[in-house]
Design goal:
48% helix, single chain, Glutaredoxin, five-stranded mixed β-sheet, alpha/beta, 2 domains, two-stranded antiparallel sheet
Length: 190
């Protein structure tokens, strides 16, 4: 009887390291899959955030944009804004397509430097896109998530004679709330 117990105990002891080895192998395999996925699909996971961070660097200075006799695409955005992130690839595609003919101005609402533009264009939700003709007249305002097709059609109609600004508001918008750290109402997510 003693030998049977000893034999069973030895079998159990031999199985425990085998289970630990299998568990470790499964964990290592899972981690390898996650890391590989992140590397292979990093553009999908991080593209929008990367694009938003670069919008400011790609931007034409607004003072120049309104004086160089070209139509202007002016977007107010924030890096934390989920709707802005969702629209970033579409906006980037528009910029790539039209950058020779249109000024693209991107103003981060969290930067106090742009406070006068935020007030001037009554920005209270983001993203907000304002389209101006080459004379600097505001023609279209889009607030919230927009279809690329809608913005493209508006760009095509920029030089047509229209009497007033057309405003398009979508329910998917990030609301701007007062932030006590800045005097001019910086943004928080709503």
């Amino acid at each position: 009887m003693f030998e049977v117990r000893k034999s069973l105990l030895m079998q159990f002891e031999n199985r425990e390291p085998l289970l630990n080895k299998n568990s470790k192998a499964i964990i290592v395999f899972f981690i390898a899959i996650v890391i590989t996925s992140l590397i292979l699909f990093k553009n999908i996971f991080f593209q929008s955030t990367f694009l938003l961070k670069n919008f400011g660097e790609l931007s034409v200075d607004p003072a120049i944009a309104f004086k160089n006799n070209k139509p202007t695409f002016l977007e107010f955005y924030a890096e934390w804004c989920e709707v802005c992130k969702e629209m970033a690839p579409k906006v980037s595609a528009l910029r790539d397509e039209y950058e020779k003919d249109i000024n693209f101005v991107f103003l981060n609402v969290d930067n106090p430097k742009w406070g006068n533009y935020i007030k001037r264009f009554d920005v209270n939700g983001i993203p907000q896109v304002n389209l101006f003709d080459k004379k600097g007249n505001l023609k279209f305002t889009f607030i919230g998530k927009q279809e690329e097709k809608t913005i493209r059609e508006s760009i095509a109609n920029l030089e047509k004679e229209t009497k007033s600004n057309e405003e398009v508001i979508n329910a998917e918008v990030s609301v701007i709330k007062e932030n006590k750290n800045n005097k001019f109402m910086p943004r928080s997510h709503g």
